[in-house]
Amino acid sequence: MTIERILTHPEAASAEAIQTAIDAFDGYGRLVLPAMDLLLDRGIELRSGIELVGQGSATVLRKGPGRIYPMSGYHNYGMQDVPLTSTTGLAVGMTVSVLDNLRLGFYETFARITWIDGDWVGIDTGLSADYTADQQPRLTTAYPMIFGHRISNAAVRNLVLDGRREDQEIPMGGCRGGAIYLARSSATEVSGIRQYDYHGEGISFQMCRDVVVRESEFSRNSGNGIHPGAGSTNCLIDDCRSTGNEHSGFFFCVRANHITVRNGVFEENGDGISIGTRDCHNLIEACRIHVNHGPGVLLRPDRSPVEVHSCRFKHCSIQGNAEREGGGQIVIAGPARDLEFSENDIQGDAHNPKPGILVEAATQKVHLRDNRFAGCDPDIRADERSLAHTTTSFECGHGEFIENRFRHLGYGVSP
Q1: CA–CA separation, 309 vs 204, rounded Å?
Q2: Are 34 and 59 in contact (CB under 8 A)?
Q3: At 201, phi and psi to the nearest 5?
Q4: Which of 30, 285, 304, 312 fits a 20 to 30 Å CA distance from 123?
Q5: What is the per-residue DSSP string for 351-386?
Q6: Interatomic CA distance for residues 236 and 118, integer angstroms
């Protein structure tokens, strides 16, 4: 049974108050936020079975200022405390990140403050790395605005998220965070979200399965707009916009497999859609990929045996890309194989002529069928040995799969 609780303005007066309401549920619950404009001093953490719902454009959450707190010196892996030169402005319950100039990505530590004693702060997880004084270690108030770790059957819907990028001193690393972030989570849905101006990724989900993102927008972020990675599997991204992001509109990271991207709009990003290491069995269909600064579709260079393979692109409009860099509207680099591009509209710029599809020599088994070209020079640049005249049979996109499709993640439906 799902219990619904509708918060009043006093009950939703702070991120801490909202978190208290989420944590008070015992079992399945639906927490409804009022129409409001709230500045967050910490991220809001989703729990399994909880649906967080706003009032659409009337419910606006804005990220609080991003500040840097230098560490006072060396501190070692696994410790759940951090020595700082000052703790002014920090409070128990706030979410923070710890990093240095060298240890980034998954070596960045994301945690919640559990205690403060002088210039020491306690955190609820062990440090992800050794942090040495010569690499400028620091704690920062960079955090995902809404996040979930090891959750299932949760949702966030109908909210506006303003990352207030102009007031953030340091970005949140995309492996550990984003405006919305999920890690080791399953059966979670994001819908009706308008997100913009975050210093980092719009949405990032890592080591997840069965994630659905619908009818949402991720815009003007300093990183990628949408970023599934680290083995995320069996996900659906439907009817979403990703525009004006400095990096890719959609960035498949390592081993992001069996993902369907459908009815998307990817415009004015660094690249439109970027696919790389072990990102296989993916389906991109009926997407609008226009006027990105780099290629509309980029299959990044890699090496065997971690090459991209078994991906299908169909019924997409790919136009006016590679205006600043990149060799064409679609660029396939390295030893990618077993790819299909069918019934796409591919249009270049007559004033800046580049190929419609550029295939590097190491690529194999690219099947091109019924694509329509305009303004490209040439339409296709490829070694004949890289092309396949018949379709290779392969499965792609999200769907119903036997459990061995998920064994690399190490957990089942309820992590």
Answers
A1: 23
A2: yes
A3: -90, 150
A4: 30
A5: TS---SEEE-TT-EEEEEES-EEES-SSSEE--GGG
A6: 47
CA distance 261 to 239: 8
Q: Which residues face 209 on adjacent strands?
A: 186, 233
Are residues 7 and 32 in contact, defined by beta-carbon separation less than 8 angstroms? yes
| Dihedral sign of CA atoms 188, 292, 274, 105 in order | negative
Mean pLDDT of 6-30: 96
Report the 3 state secondary structure along 29-78. Answer: EEEECCCEEEEECCCEECCCCEEEECCHHHEEEEECCECEEEECCCECCC
Calpha distance 28→50 (Å, rounded) = 6
Residue that has been written with the tokens 């089942």 in this structure: 412
- What's the length of the chain? 415
Secondary structure E strands in 215-351: 217-219, 226-229, 233-238, 241-243, 248-251, 257-262, 265-267, 271-275, 283-285, 288-290, 297-299, 309-314, 317-319, 330-332, 337-342, 345-347
Residue 414 has pLDDT above 50, yes or no: no
Tell me the pLDDT tens digit for each residue of 67-107: 999 999 889 999 999 999 999 999 999 999 999 998 788 88
Q: At 409, give phi and psi (nearest 5°).
A: -85, -25
- Report how far residue 277's alpha carbon sits from residue 284's, in angstroms, rounded to the nearest whole number: 17
Beta strands in 102-154 (DSSP E): 109-117, 120-123, 138-140, 146-149
Encode 196-210 in three state secondary structure: ECCCCCCEEEECCEC
The torsion region of residue 119 among left (phi > 0), alpha (psi -120 to 50) and beta comes to alpha
> What single letter denotes the amino acid at residue 69?
Y
- Would you state the torsion angle of the CA atoms of residues 240, 227, 319, 221, taken in this order, to the nearest 10 degrees? 80
Q: Write the CB contacts of 227 (distance below 8 Å, at least 6 apart in sequence).
A: 174, 178, 201, 202, 203, 204, 205, 250, 251, 253
Tell me the three state secondary structure of residue 18: helix
Q: What's the whole-model pTM score?
A: 0.95
Rounded (5°) CA angle 173-326-223: 15
